[in-house]
Amino acid sequence: MGRTLAEKVWEQHVVRRAEGEPDLLYIDLHLIHEVTSPQAFDGLRLAGRKVRRPDLTIATEDHNVPTVLGPISDPVSKTQVETLRKNAAEFGIRLHPMGDAGQGVVHIIGPQFGLTQPGMTIVCGDSHTSTHGAFGGIAFGIGTSEVEHVLATQTLPAYRPKTMAIEVSGELPDGVTAKDLILAIIHQIGTGGGQGYIVEYRGEAVRKLSMEGRMTVCNMSIEAGARAGMIAPDETTFAYLKGRPHAPQGEQWDRAVEYWKSLRSDDDAVFDKVVEIDASALTPYVTWGTNPGQGLPLGEAVPSPDSFADPVERAAAERALTYMGLTAGTPLREIEVDTVFVGSCTNGRIEDLRSAAEILRGRQVRTRTLIVPGSMLVKLQAEQEGLHEVFKAAGAEWREAGCSMCLGMNPDTLQPGERSASTSNRNFEGRQGKGGRTHLVSPQVAAATAVTGRLTAPADL
Amino acid sequence: MEAFTTHTGTAVPLRRSNVDTDQIIPAVWLKQVSRTGFDRGLFAAWREDPTFVLNDPAYEGGSILVSGPDFGTGSSREHAVWALQQYGFRAVIAARFGDIFRNNSTKMGLLPVVLPGEKVEALQSAVEADPKLEITVDLAERQVRWAGEAVAFEIDDYTRWRLMEGLDDIGLTLRHAEEVAAYENGRQPWLPTTV
């Protein structure tokens, strides 16, 4: 019987397999940031342990950093960032601090340096590590105990998750993006639908996505409950990687590509579960509730809790409408927002900024609009393309790189009762600031919404 | 890690689904660099509501949280586990858990117990009817018991053994350091380093 892509990559990384034990899995790349690492480094120090492979480890400052120039004003955030600097120096780990040209959101910088490659195992103390699966590796988020484990051993004990194929047939219509696709998938399978699985996204619509789009899709696998999401590498992947600072070169490049081409699910591979979705039927998607499964096409209305047959879902919808301050039956297009956020590890890459700029060019925003590039290199590239001038002329704020309003650990937050259209990944209660209300959208819908002040598709302008 | 064999205590019924880790411990609490003091941040936003179940004196001292499905979804923050433990919880019972949260729990000795949805609801109702109801979570027997009910739960042998012994994963893995070194010698030559 053939093997799935996930099985191939997993098997390649098994250091030790014993009856009645989880596999011991080798980790090719460990990404670190300031929030989930300090207690792990403390653990190493207490036990007198070293970092086994600092040369397979890289750190950045992203969650706490302000996106306006200047020092960190919050003393607690400042201590956390300084703690990472001290730990990176003590244990010999490469760090991209604030102000460094390589600094940025942890899931943006791995791919941009070419450190994220097909067939690798990648972990980080951050659930959106699934992003890196877009290159055809197994990438997943871990907690601080496991961060310490990887630092000490460069391995993790783990049971191989089951495999799920999400077959996306057809082509995405014009104006419908990777973000709309993943929001539609999460709506279809639910926030628990992927629990216990590694998802492989397949099919015509997935093959036609750019690497940026594939990263957006894989990024939100965790919002469907999946541990990881992945896409088989192809020419799009190789073209993205070629020439990047850490990509293989010369003869090694040829050998690598030859191997990478074998990284696809065999035709006779059997998945534990298969889900099908028709891309050609999709329209722009937005969320109305407080979990990412509570989404609908923009053309629809806020649902009535009574429309949910399952009592648990009905109760969740009732609670969500109260929190969100919404009334059943209100057309989604009539929902007014106070703030628009374009950025995050979901939609903070150059392609996302280009698509937002295209809509804002020659128009004016009616809401507070934050444009936060995912990394300093994305920022530099956008400025070379003149996108920052487009944003500024439209009245939007052009910021420094960081996680920013995705989770509001820095000063970029919503006030209680404020409502945002956000290109980030979570619409949880209070995610963007206590009492804040979040609608997840694509960069295109975010930009169009900034222009009208209501949830809007670009085609409506 | 704190060992877990069997625990008897009272419960707190949390009738909500999709209790994500941002609710369990909001991001503002994650700026700490120590492992302590997270109990104050547990469900920080929800606890501002006087009618929230943790503010109900009837459930004071509860050490078993009985939640709706999809508990611990979202962010990988292990701080959610620390907050629950430091508040006094030893086990969480739900029909479904977020994968990372469940993993983090078993690294720290907080027992995540998966029971069928109807059994979770029955237990919640029983606790609401009698908040002092004694519940036993028995990892050795893989069973939850209350008021004459005994419901089995599944957990793999390895994780159960590790929890019952309170074993540190890193120590276990370091016993295999030679196998790790042997694997490293065979890694593909083009794989990147960060230097």
Give a quick set of tags describing it.
heterodimer; A: 461 residues; alpha/beta; Aconitase, domain 3; 16 helices; 19 strands; globular; B: four-stranded parallel beta sheet; 16% strand
How are the SSEs ordered, and which strands pair?
The complex is a heterodimer of chains A (461) and B (195).
Chain A: H1 5-12, E1 14-16, E2 23-26, E3 29-32, H2 38-47, E4 57-60, H3 75-91, E5 94-96, H4 106-113, E6 121-124, E7 138-141, H5 144-153, E8 155-158, E9 162-169, H6 178-189, E10 197-202, H7 204-207, H8 211-219, E11 228-230, H9 235-241, H10 250-260, E12 273-278, E13 285-287, E14 295-297, H11 311-324, E15 339-342, H12 344-347, H13 350-360, E16 368-371, H14 376-384, H15 387-394, E17 397-398, E18 419-422, E19 437-440, H16 443-452
Parallel strand pairs in A: 3-4, 3-6, 4-5, 6-7, 9-10, 9-12, 10-11, 15-16, 15-18, 16-17, 18-19
Antiparallel strand pairs in A: 1-2, 2-8, 13-14
Chain B: E1 6-9, E2 11-14, H1 21-24, E3 64-67, H2 79-87, E4 91-94, H3 99-108, E5 111-114, H4 117-129, E6 135-138, E7 143-146, E8 149-152, H5 157-165, H6 169-174, H7 177-185
Parallel strand pairs in B: 2-3, 3-4, 4-5
Antiparallel strand pairs in B: 1-6, 6-7, 7-8
